[in-house]
Amino acid sequence: MKKTKIIAIDGPSSSGKSTIAKLIARHFDYTYIDSGSIYRAITYIAVKHNLIDNFKIDTLAIIEILKKTSISFSFNSKNQNIISVDGVELDNEIRTFKISSLVSLIAEKNEIRQYVVKIQKDISINKSVVMDGRDIGSIVFPNADVKFYLDASLEKRSERRWMELQNIEDVSLDDVKNDLHKRDLKDLNREFSPLVKPKNSITVNSDNLSIEQVVYNMIKIIDKVLHS
Ligand code: DC
């Protein structure tokens, strides 16, 4: 049987991971999994059930709801990764500024992370995947075939995120920058599965490179590692 491959891409928010991971997955005909969308979907569920109040979350109640909830992935005609909760597709509603500003509260809870890691492992069974996130090469798939740490400055990341949000809602560049900075601090300093450069990962800084250049460089590295 052909051995399936795992390409792990970690890095801070808005470093270009999802755009780049999608293009790499398309090139190798692997499945792209956006692991941040799982944390975002759980945040959306928690907000919907009023389980986040004044930046405090009711973890036990969220876990109880998750036990009765199905979170799944499907792919649209453009092979884009769509997350569904109980069969209902979620897209822009999990990318809003509100969900972005609350998701770190969810992602720092170990019980929730364990639930997400199980989903991540289950969807990668018998498939070659490119998965992006914060703990893919360190915790979820420490034996991934190739591990990347995709980095970019706070300025560049804020501009990119702000541009993306233009299609969704009206928010200032300063607000986006402050929120990203707060999320960086949370992702880097949280107790469970903080954002780290995974052991044996290759760091790529996208500040002065176009998406095409980054993808080209990463594909060359993957080809070399997989065929050496
Ligand atoms: O990549 P993103 O911005 O969509 O991720 C949303 C949040 O989920 C982010 O604040 C960090 C968290 N996350 C995580 O802790 N671990 C992952 N593997 C993916 C995302």
Q: What do these coordinates show?
A:
The structure is a single chain. The chain has 228 residues and is α/β, with parallel strands linked by helices. It has one domain (6-216): P-loop containing nucleotide triphosphate hydrolases (Rossmann fold, 3-Layer(aba) Sandwich). Helices cover 48% and strands 18% of the residues. The chain has a five-stranded parallel β-sheet. Strands 5-6-7 form a three-stranded antiparallel β-sheet, with helices on one face. Strands 3-4 form a two-stranded antiparallel sheet. A hairpin with a 2-residue loop joins strand 6 and strand 7. The protein is globular. The chain starts with 5 loop residues before the first strand and ends with a helix. The mean pLDDT is 93. 2'-deoxycytidine-5'-monophosphate (DC) is lined by residues 13, 35-36, 39-40, 103-104, 107, 133-136, 183, 187. 2'-deoxycytidine-5'-monophosphate is lined by residues 13, 35-36, 39-40, 103-104, 107, 133-136, 183, 187.
Distance between the termini: 20 Å
**String of helices and strands:** EHEHEEHEEEHHEHEHHEH
CATH topology: Rossmann fold
Number of helices: 9
Number of domains: 1
Strand order of the largest sheet: 2-8-1-9-10
Give the second-level CATH assignment, the architecture: 3-Layer(aba) Sandwich
Q: What distinguishing features does this structure have?
A:
alpha/beta, 9 helices, Rossmann fold, globular, 48% helix, 10 strands, three-stranded antiparallel β-sheet, binds 2'-deoxycytidine-5'-monophosphate, 18% strand, 228 residues
